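Lab meeting notes turned into a lecture example. A postdoc, R.K., suggested we walk through two folding results consecutively so the class can see how the record format repeats. The first protein's sequence and structure tokens come next.
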Amino acid sequence: MSFKSKVDQSSGSSVSKKWSFLLCLGCFCAGMFFTNWVGTVPQSKGIMRATAMEAETLKLISESCNLKVKEEKHVSKDIMGEAFKTHHAIHTLDKTISNLEMELAAARAAQESLLDGSPLSTDTNRAESSRKRRYLMVIGINTAFSSRKRRDSVRATWLPQDEKRKKLEDEKGIIVRFVIGHSATTGGILDRAIEAENQKHGDFLRLQDHVEGYLELSAKTKIYFATAVALWDADFYVKVDDDVHVNIATLGETLVRHRKKPRVYIGCMKSGPVLSQKGVRYHEPEHWKFGEAGNKYFRHATGQLYAISKDLASYISINQHVLHKYANEDVSLGSWFIGLDVEHIDDRRLCCGTPPDCEWKAQAGNACVASFDWSCSGICKSADRIKEVHRRCGEGENALWGATF
């Protein structure tokens, strides 16, 4: 082989190696570029796709949360509404149960009195029919065995008699009775005298479980309200003494203003001194309960005339066996309402003086409900003077029969 041939062969081989190297390097670079392009683009698309999916998921979760919040708010409102309705229903039911308990107690008291064998009054035979209607008020005139002249003076002045009294009940819804218990000797001469008087006038309410006595006025007051609420369904129950002048129409107009109020206690409110000295009038044996010497009583209505609503009369009837009795009946009544949600109404027209006081007020167009002398705790010598008081301070029959309650 010639030297030229070898040179040519050696040169071709050298060129082939260089091109091979360059070709390999190009292929490697092309492969790297292709690999990066293929790997980068899908990854970017994958990330974008993942980000979009996450955003959509978050949106759905957010919407779901908002929907749940709205639903929870709606449910919360519904719960509050139902809770309010339930509370109102419970309150109404509680009030209904309370009223039923009062009526049941009143009916039980009436039944027990009937089972004793003696009628409560001449109205007992009509008690059932009387309870079917609603009266405006029951006026109980507190009286004693020795007060026949006082009763006759009341009958001759402000208390209608016979058919007019029946008309007063039927047309005006006003019941008026003299209230008295029994003597210590049952069926004795005092009781027989009252029975004879009742046969003539028919205007007594006899308290079967009460024995008359000045120191027993608190007990008499309890039994009166319990008996009256058992016999008559009325808006108000009034207690008045038999030496007080009363204008019935003015009393009715006064009470009607408070008819829709619950638990009202109406009278001339006072707060007199607690008298600890023995032997004085209105002595308080339990003075120590009212604190130091010289203290005054709590606010209460003066005893000559006061009125209470039916729910308070029913309360007395239900709880009469546990209500404490103080020496003075007006103090006792006031004490029974302490701690209760009672509205005390102070109306000075229920405690006017006798002429000229009540006369001046009548002339000024402000007629009095009740008139008496403070110095006598009633009209002084009322059997003799009440006619004069009636003439000068009475409202007249037209006022009564023309009144609408």
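The second example is placed directly after the first for contrast:
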Amino acid sequence: MKNKNKSFYIFAPFLFSFLILFGSKSINAQEVEDEREFDYAERGERGPRKWGMLRPEWAACNNGTFQSPIDMCNERVKIISKPERRNYRVSNATVRNRGHDIQIQWFGDAGSIYINGTEYPLRYAHWHSPSEHTIHGRRYDMELHLVHLNTDPNGKVRIAVVGVLYKIGKPNGFLSKLMRSISSMINKGGEEINIGMVDPNEIRVRTKRYYRYKGSLTIPPCTEGVIWTISKKVKTVSYEQVKLLREAVHDYAEENARPLQKLNSRQVDLYGPGRTIN
């Protein structure tokens, strides 16, 4: 068992570890194979400040203008009255210890989210603790990301991620069903288990209000153009559940949150009931 003596609120995750795929190549084939190619040491040689200098294709990590994560603040939010359309369904899935996080991958048709008329099929879900995105400067205890990918006829992939924030409280029902599988893969980076049919609707991501903005991947290559949707409603997760997710990953991932990025010229939209404010 690893020595977990760092502050609970200092521990931080990094967001989803997938890259853009092209043509018929798989997503996994495009991922960074060596998970130690970069780390999160604030002043380290491979830390966030140096990512853009480690490889030419990672330049956006330092030079990008639409980077993630960011803070959601009312001073720069426009309210838009527009319903969200999601259509998730039961599909076969696996759970995998990727060394830096625990991830579910759905195979087959797990449903989609629709944004501005474009369908984004669901592919992955993974957890980070604490949250990388903040609301009014507050960082929460955990953040779940549902990763959706759309491939157009030219082979270009567009990415949409739904984020749900959690605070310590009652156990999370969906995560409770995975506790035994996750417990079996502590310190086993690369371990993957088939968990059968999993219903994404049990995550209960539906909410009346959510933030939306355009950002990036939060790990190299920090690709921009990602559509982020962050639920305004904060849900609960137990301390034991968060602790297990932390224990399962490698030691270097105990503090793995990318620092907040500048908003620059971006606008954050708040979708929900009410009058549209321009």
